[in-house]
Amino acid sequence: MRNFKMVLFITLIIFCGSLISDMGFSKKKTIDLGKLEKDLNNVSYSFDFYSQKNMLLGSKRTIEVGKEDVIIYDYKDIDLMEIDEASISKDGYVVGNYMIDWASKPHFYKNNSSIVQYIGDDNKVIKALSDLCGKQFAGQE
Fold first, then answer.
1. Is residue 60's pLDDT more than 80?
2. Superkingdom of this entry's organism (predicted)?
3. Predicted TM-score of the model (pTM)
4. Dihedral, CA atoms, 15, 16, 20, 22, nearest 10 degrees?
5. pLDDT level of residue 40 (50, 70, 90 thresholds)
6. Which residues make Cβ contacts (< 8 Å) with residue 27, sequence separation at least 6?
7. How far is CA 111 from CA 32, 85, 128, 130, in A?
8. What are the two backbone dihedrals, phi and then psi, of residue 118, each rounded to the nearest 5 degrees?
9. N or C: which end of the chain has fewer CB within 10 A?
10. What is the pLDDT of residue 55?
11. How many CB atoms lie within 10 A of CB 55?
C-alpha cells in the first residue's frame, strides 16, 4: 500500500510539474485525455470522462450576483422557453427528465425571453431576482 501511494504521489508530481512548466500567459494549455487516462490506469485508478449537458434548451450563461451564481437561459424561440418552463416541476426538483438533489433551495424565474435559475438561500439575491423578474414560477419559497 505504501508503494502504491508513493507511485501515485510521484505520478501526480510529474504530471503537475509538466503542467506548470508548460504554463505561460500567451499559451493555452490543453490536457491530453488519452495520456491522463493511461497514466491513471497505470496506478490502478479508473477514468471516466463526461460532459455536463445543459438541462434546458436555451443558451446558458452564468452571472455573479453578490457572491452567488445565477444561471440565465436565453431563448430565441419563446415556444422553446415555454416547453422548458413546463418541464420544471412546481417545487423545482424535477427539470425535464431529471430529478435533482440541489445543494440548496432552487428558484426559477422568467424574464422576457429568459429563464433565470438561482440555487441558494441568499435573501438579497432572491429579492433582487423577484424585483427584476417577478414572482418565481417554480422552486422553494
1. yes
2. Bacteria
3. 0.63
4. 20
5. low
6. none
7. 41, 12, 13, 10
8. -130, 125
9. N
10. 83
11. 18
Q: For residue 114, give the H/E element and its range.
A: strand 114-119
Distance of CA 99 to the CA centre of its chain: 16
Residues 48/36, Cβ–Cβ less than 8 Å: no
CB 80 within 8 A of CB 58: yes
- 108: enclosing H helix or E strand: strand 106-111
Type and span of the H or E element at 105: none
Give the whole-angstrom CA distance, residue 46 versus residue 37: 8
Percentage of the chain modeled with pLDDT above 70: 62
Q: Element (H or E) spanning 23, and its range? A: none
CB 43 within 8 A of CB 3: no
CA-CA distances (angstroms) from residue 96 to 30, 44, 57, 89? 33, 37, 10, 8
CB 111 within 8 A of CB 96: no
SS in 3 state form for 28-84? CCCCCHHHHHHHHHHCCCCCCCCCCCCCCCCEEEEEEECCEEEEEEECCCHHHHHHH
Q: Which residue has the cell 432572491?
A: 126
